Structures are given as C-alpha cells and as structure tokens.
Amino acid sequence: SALVTHKHQCTVRWDLTCDCLCPKYPHNCSFLSFFLHRNLGKSGLRVSCLGLGTWVTFGSQISDEMAENLMTIAYESGVNLFDTAEVYASGRSGATSSSKHQFKLLLLRSSFVITTKIYWGGQAETERGLSRKHIIEGLRGSLSRLQLEYVDIVFANRNDVNSPMEEIVRAMTFVINQGMAMYWGTSRWSAMEIMEAYSVARQFNLIPPVCEQAEYHYFQRDKVEVQLPELYHKIGVGAMTWSPLACGLITGKYSDGVPECSRAAMKGYQWLKERVNSEEGRRQLAKIKELHLLADRLGCTAAQLAIAWCLRSEGVSSVLLGVSNTDQLLENLGILSQMNPQTIAEIDALLGNKPHSKKELRA
C-alpha cells in the first residue's frame, strides 16, 4: 500500500496502519480524517472507521461532563460516528449529547453521523418491538431527547417476530421519507432476516437496510467473517461492529478476578461475571495473556491490536468503541499497529477458532 509521512513523521499506510502509534495525541495527526473513513456498506455515507458508542457508560458509569469531553476529543480526533439508542442508560445516553451541554457538534450537524436504535422503549406493550407505531413513536422520542431534527441511521435493534417484515420495512421507509432518518439498518439480525428485509424492499419498491450492527471480537467471529461478507457482496449491506474488547475481557482487567469498579460488577451484568468465571472464560483469559505478549512485541497495546484486528475484516465499515475515560479513548484512537498477513496468521493460530466460509468447506 502507498505510504505517506505526516507531521509526526509517522509512516501511514492507506490501509490503516501507522508505525508510530501516536497513542496519546492521535488528534494531532493530520491524515487521520483522510484515510480513516470508509463507505457504510455500499451506500454513499462516509463514516469514520472508529465510532463512539454509548452502550453502558454514558449516563450510568460516567458523568455528563465526562461524556461531553469524550465526544469532543473523539470528534477532534477524526471520529464522525456517534451511536445511541432509546434504551441505553434508560434513555439518558440520548440526552447526554443533546443541548443539556449545548454540545458544540450541534453547530456542525452536517459534519457527523448520529445513529439510534429502536426496539426497547417503555414498559407498555406498544412501547417495544418493531410495529409501525413503535418505530415512528420511538424514533420521535429519540429525536426529542437528542434535540435533533433527524438521525443519520436508525437501527432495528433485533428482529421482532410479532411484526411482519413488510410492516417493518414500510415503517423504516416512511421515517426516511419523512426526513426523520437518512438510512436504516439492522442490529443482531440473522443473515436470513436481513435478506428477507432486502427482498421485501425490492418487491415493493421500498428502502432496504444498508448496515448490520454485530458483536465482533477475537471470540465472536462467525457472523462478521462468514455471513456478512456474503451479504456485502450480494446486496451491499455493511457491518458496524461493537464490543471489540469483549466487554473489557481483552484488556486483561479480569485476569485476577472481577474488579469492583468494572462492568462485570455492575447491577444487571451478572451474565458477564459468570462468563468471566466460567471454564470457557478462563481459557479465553489464558489466550488473552498470549495476545498481550504479541502486542508488546509489536509495540502497541492489547486494545489497539484487538481493534486493528477487527478493522482488517472485509465489509467492516466501522468499529464502535465503548470507553469511560479519556485515557481509554486516546489509547483506542491511537493509530493502529501493523496488521500484516503474518500477524493475522499468528493471531489465528493462537486463537484456534478461525471460521471457514462455504467456499473453503466445499474445497
């Protein structure tokens, strides 16, 4: 790949690597905003390959002031993608980025991408799911909390077996035609469900989804590496992935048990604590120790290596970061270590869980 030198005298590859890492001050690197953007699937929307998510931390683990600070640093570092949802922190993650702080990005609305998700709303039967009623009312509620006229992408946050696919696609088409959203996508949908939505859209001249949000990290690979690339080539659906550090597991914070201030110790995250303490969790932690040694050898952190590994996958448009302080954010935004075929092969050998495509199985 072509090389270019920026003002830190780092060598930047067009494919996504920088030899100096710049972990502390990535926002000073002048080429960041140029080469760290990709098309969202085969749509024309350009998104930063790293986005800022608000899954757990915003509105619950961190203060509003810290949330604003993180968003400002991310934006100034070249990040233009901010992911929210109607349910995150009981709806507060939407309010955090609104006029509560008069977040300065709102003055430049055309320069960044805001997403939201619809499914879990209130307690009433009609306040959840993907009925036409809840899609429209849920999105209006999100826009009110965000104090925005529109979001760029609205995601259907898991499929709803109680709502016909045609109703879902028609409702998504309606909110786009009404100017409430620019695009729509899916989250936690199967490849078959996404294909059905696409077929319905084509049959009735409606708008198909452009993106699937999926969990993706060292220990969760099949969907993003086998199923989604096929959809990308067939119908242009891209992948926006989340949890690149496996809820913090990959950072090594759980190597000696569950710290009191960690996510696994939070109310409602008993499942994560059980996962960490399980036999499979212990096996994963042993592999993570080896990955830390590999990262040290490459001159980067384990988090930077894990994020670079996610970004190397075909069809991945953006990886969403979940952070709770500026040090974590700056580390994760640090330009990524060399992800050459040799490093990828070494990680695959260490993990021992590389999924095989249908073509490879036939061969």
UniProtKB/TrEMBL annotation:
Pfam families per record: Aldo_ket_red
Biological-process GO terms, alphabetical: regulation of potassium ion transmembrane transport
Record SUPFAM superfamilies: NAD(P)-linked oxidoreductase (SSF51430)
Domain NADP-dependent oxidoreductase, chain residue ranges per copy: 50-350
Membrane topology of the entry: Peripheral membrane protein
Primary residence: membrane
GO CC annotation: cytoplasm; voltage-gated potassium channel complex
Entries under Gene3D superfamilies matching the protein: NADP-dependent oxidoreductase domain (3.20.20.100)
UniProt keywords, alphabetically: Cell membrane, Cytoplasm, Ion transport, Membrane, NADP, Oxidoreductase, Potassium, Potassium transport, Transport
Protein localization: Cell membrane; Cytoplasm
Membrane-crossing segments per the record: none
Entry GO MF terms: oxidoreductase activity; potassium channel regulator activity; transmembrane transporter binding; voltage-gated potassium channel activity
Catalytic activity: a primary alcohol + NADP(+) = an aldehyde + NADPH + H(+); a secondary alcohol + NADP(+) = a ketone + NADPH + H(+)
Keyword Oxidoreductase: yes
Family (UniProt): Belongs to the shaker potassium channel beta subunit family.
Protein's UniProt name: Voltage-gated potassium channel subunit beta-1
Organism (species): Sander lucioperca (Pike-perch)
